[in-house]
Amino acid sequence: MNAGTGKTALITGASSGIGQELAKLFAQDGYNLVLVGRSDDKLDRLGDVFKNNYGTQEITVIGKDLSEEDAAQDVYNQVKAKDITVDVLVNDAGVGLYGLFATDTDWEREKAMIHLNVLALTQMTKLFLYDMLSRNEGKILNLASLLSITPTPLMAVYAGTKAYVYNFTQSLVNELKDTNVTVTALLPNATDTDFFHKAGAENTKVTDEVQDPVMVAKDGYNALMAGKPKVIPGGFKNKSYEVMSYVAPQEALSALMRDKMSQKPDPNEEEHSNGLAWGIGIGIAVVAGIALGYAYMNTNDFTRARYRYKAKSLGDTISDALSSVVDNVVDSVVSAYNTTKDKASDLTHKADVVKEEVMEEEVVS
Ligand SMILES: NC(=O)c1ccc[n+]([C@@H]2O[C@H](COP(=O)([O-])OP(=O)(O)OC[C@H]3O[C@@H](n4cnc5c(N)ncnc54)[C@H](OP(=O)(O)O)[C@@H]3O)[C@@H](O)[C@H]2O)c1
Known about the structure:
The chain has 365 residues and is α/β, with parallel strands linked by helices. It is 60% helix and 9% strand. It has a domain at 8-233: NAD(P)-binding Rossmann-like Domain (Rossmann fold, 3-Layer(aba) Sandwich). Strands 3-2-1-4-5-6-7 form a 7-stranded parallel beta sheet, with helices on both faces. Helix 4 (107-135) packs parallel to helix 5 (156-175). The structure holds NADP nicotinamide-adenine-dinucleotide phosphate. NADP nicotinamide-adenine-dinucleotide phosphate is lined by residues 12-13, 15-19, 37-39, 65-67, 92-95, 116, 143, 145, 188, 190-191, 193-195, 198. Residues 12-13, 15-19, 37-39, 65-67, 92-95, 116, 143, 145, 188, 190-191, 193-195, 198 line the site of NADP nicotinamide-adenine-dinucleotide phosphate. GO terms for molecular function: oxidoreductase activity. It comes from Spirosoma profusum.
């Protein structure tokens, strides 16, 4: 018998990308499925594939635009009306939006994104978590992102929504620690789905290093089943980004992400020389991150916490030291200028006195 036989997983955003790969894993493990999204025809077809390929017993499709007011409540009511018990909730549905916040992006799309990525996810969690707690059993997976832990110019609101998801999820991990209900945050790096195209970011540099949604879903699924608080799929390189997000000053992270989110250079144009400087800078940062990450991974929890604290203090100290160096240089230049100006005016004064004395002597003689 499969692990999920007789149990039900509700998945939002199962019509494509990471959500679809997650739904497949649940189907393979014998779960009944509730699939929620706007494209109910796509979800119906997916349900048929799961029934044919994996013998899935029960598939319920709920067509819903989760960016609408109280959409989550409506989904919950429909699930209750069908007398379905949700054992696993996967909040995958989400969208992004690319562009400068002040001048490029459209507020209506931003509002819908906040609604979907933040409000719907929170309300779904609230409604289903309460039922899970009353049974003292259940699992929740929330789709955060590696952008949850770095400022991200050109996707500022999206990154803000994902920072919320991550922070919210980690807070719940603590609130639920004495229960049998677990909540897990999945933090993928750029993944090869339709996400960037829909967000208008398909031509950005970050899309050159996308990872496989099958691998992302598998890592998320395993972490969810193990009840882990979070997972960053993609091995050591992506985990080193996490370490970097603790140690690097925020300004440096923003600059790094700004570069990653910028448009790819025209292949016919020569790379600007500062591209090389960026490459070297990013290379050094990644190597430093990898080294720190290696040390970090090979220690126990207590030492890790100390590393994190020390690394953060070190980051703050470096940042403070840099600004104090800049302040000192500026102070020295200003004070040298003032001293020189004073000396010059002193000399001018002395010269005037001597001139007057000479003139007086000439008059006397
Ligand atoms: N791809 C990445 O690089 C990446 C990285 C980190 C995190 N993530 C996160 O991973 C999650 C899945 O994204 P993906 O990469 O798999 O992108 P995707 O292929 O575009 O999938 C997005 C899913 O969300 C659903 N959705 C969008 N708007 C909706 C709405 N208003 N109501 C209900 N469902 C809606 C879509 O279904 P319909 O359009 O059919 O409704 C689709 O199933 C998102 O939360 C995203 O933020 C993605």
